[in-house]
Amino acid sequence: MEKRNIYLDKLPLTEAKEIILNNLAGNYREATERVKVEDASGRVTAEAVYAEDSSPHYYAAAMDGFAVDVDKTFGASKRDPKELTIGQEAFFVDTGDAVPEGCNGVIMIEDVNQLDEATIEITASVAPGQHIRSIGEDILASQLLAPVNTKLGPSEIGGLLAGGITEIEVRKEPEVAILPTGTELVDPGSSLQPGEIVEYNSRVIASQIREWGAVPVKADKVEDDYELIKNRVDRLSQQYDLVLIIAGSSAGAEDYTSQVIENLGELLFHGVAIKPGKPLMAGVINEKLVIGLPGYPVSAYLGTQLFVRPVIERLLGLTCSQPEKVKAELTQNLTSKLGEEEFVRVNVAHIDGDLKAVPLQRGAGVINSVMKSDGFIRIPALKQGMKQNKQVEVELRRDIDYNQNLLIAGEEDLAYELLCNQIKLQGVGLNLKFKNMASETAVDTLEQKAANAALVKTVGMRQETVVVNLAVSEVGLVVRPDNSLGINGVEDLSQEGLSFVNQQQGRAARRLLDSRLETAGINTQEIVGYRQEEITGRDAANLVKEGIIDVGLASRGVAELFNLDFISLGQITSSLVILESEVEREELKKLLEVVRSNEYKSQLQKIAGYNTEDCGEIIDRK
Ligand SMILES: Nc1nc2c(c(=O)[nH]1)N[C@H]1C(S)=C(S)[C@@H](COP(=O)(O)OP(=O)(O)OC[C@H]3O[C@@H](n4cnc5c(N)ncnc54)[C@H](O)[C@@H]3O)O[C@H]1N2
Ligand code: MOO
């Protein structure tokens, strides 16, 4: 067996999709089953459904009142009212009641004067058919209710039941086997050893598949062993409608997927000109389609979206669904590789009157970027990127209401996470989206209209902005709980043998450290690790916790989260900087209301080292 396989195909996306669909037998799956209409939400009709009954199936009163023979009301007016005898000429009916024989109109109770128990008086004539629902007004027996290959939802269930249908024939849900491969994989919840990875791709894919109306069958993970993978794939392809193999798709020594497919059946292609997702492949084994998905989580997610969804739709007899799209202005230049269609995750929000698309992290391993995104944009294969301010088309993820989005750029802060929770707890219609960056960069980002607010920690003011106090927190050095190195302050950072890790340049905590070092007259070159940067205090605290370094720089709240000892260096004010032009916007007013709420303040006070004095106050305006 050849150990290394280099994939050569670079098929355009549409071509690869076409090959896959062409290798599915027929336009849909033949197998069907009978289900109750009331249980059929999400299912697809396997035959045309015709009404058995009309709805209504009798003449029905459409209003509460009296049913009458309209001829007897002719000529009634305010000046010349007409009297009718109840039970002989006028019959009391409630909405929905059958109209008594001989009656062909209903007069609303509001238009009737009851003179005594047996007599009513009417002041207007009644038109034939007035307030009567005719037979079949809604549905007429024998009419087509739903063509074959219709996906049923709540209103379809109503229509079918109203038409007298209680059971229907639907397409059997395709069963999709998902096989995770990789010796490094462990199940969620296991305690992790270095090199081990939580196997979650199959769970993500299963939930995607369920959403599209198929049944995911999650197979047990298999290690990187050619024979084991081959046996499993062989068996799965005999049992299920479609087989997905996760990982082992690229050029590594233990990447077996393409060889397995080739040796069990036919490999249709290996490699698509998309990013992420480039090593994706497809084949046919035991007459079943098999798709090899790249192992990186974003690649696996996107590959499933692009290739598995249309297959499921085809098996169900549905046409390919189109995502909802919206046009937005790109907030930064993006470069990309010529010859690859790149999918970039973005957030979308109204900023200073325009709808903007703000790119997120592009790494194929960052599933969090999908979770945080509102959708993605495509950079065409024949482009080497896209320019800032270009109008782009964003393909939205389902259920996204970007009108409630506010983009916050700035320094990570426990107060911000609390704010996000408070917004949801208080039932405020806002979604905060965060982009982590140093304060100075955040204010630049705000000025470039690429964020609705900057979360900054002590930074110089800019024109046309309003600064609102968010929180005051204590920042200092974090060490392991026993503080065995006896760190008492910045003077001890130059101890021999001690390892330190700094925060990213431009971050407030680092500036505070620098000023303390300067006051103490300590040369930063004497501190081992001063130039080694982690982005945030949380990153640094995590390294101390893991025993990788001795001292880091973080807030007291973060130190407490990681159960670390804390040596205070001082206080830092976190503020929200907002564009003057947006201060009166409804969404920003809502945000500031939460910052000013007692619930937010009382929760914030519970975090170690936080001070809520002046919380929500405007501290500066230029
Ligand atoms: N020399 C080259 N190396 C790589 C290339 C290349 O062209 N030449 N392509 C890169 C690209 S692009 C991708 S995408 C990945 C595809 O990798 P594989 O499909 O071979 O998958 P693995 O290497 O096994 O895993 C990648 C990554 O994903 C994690 N993983 C895998 N399965 C799961 C799972 N079920 N749940 C969660 N995470 C999973 C795995 O642990 C790895 O971290 O190859 C590049 N390399
Ligand atoms: O195709 Mo890979 O998914 O670009 O990282």
UniProtKB/TrEMBL annotation:
Pfam families: MoCF_biosynth, MoeA_C, MoeA_N, PBP_like
Example GO BP: Mo-molybdopterin cofactor biosynthetic process
Residue ranges constituting the MoaB/Mog domain according to the UniProt record: 177-314
Top-level taxon of the source organism: Bacteria
Top-level EC class as recorded in UniProt: transferase
Catalytic activity: adenylyl-molybdopterin + molybdate = Mo-molybdopterin + AMP + H(+)
Pathway this chain belongs to: Cofactor biosynthesis; molybdopterin biosynthesis
Molecular function terms from GO: metal ion binding; molybdopterin molybdotransferase activity
Keyword NAD: no
E.C. code: 2.10.1.1
InterPro entries: MoaB/Mog-like_dom_sf, MoaB/Mog_dom, MoeA-like, MoeA_C_domain_IV, MoeA_C_domain_IV_sf, MoeA_linker/N, MoeA_linker/N_sf, PBP_domain
UniProt keyword list: Magnesium, Metal-binding, Molybdenum, Molybdenum cofactor biosynthesis, Transferase
Required cofactor(s): Mg(2+)
UniProt keyword Nucleus, yes or no: no
Gene Ontology CC, one term: cytosol
Family membership noted in the UniProt record: Belongs to the MoeA family.
Summary of the function given for this chain in its UniProt record: Catalyzes the insertion of molybdate into adenylated molybdopterin with the concomitant release of AMP.
Protein name (database record): Molybdopterin molybdenumtransferase
Organism: Acetohalobium arabaticum (strain ATCC 49924 / DSM 5501 / Z-7288)
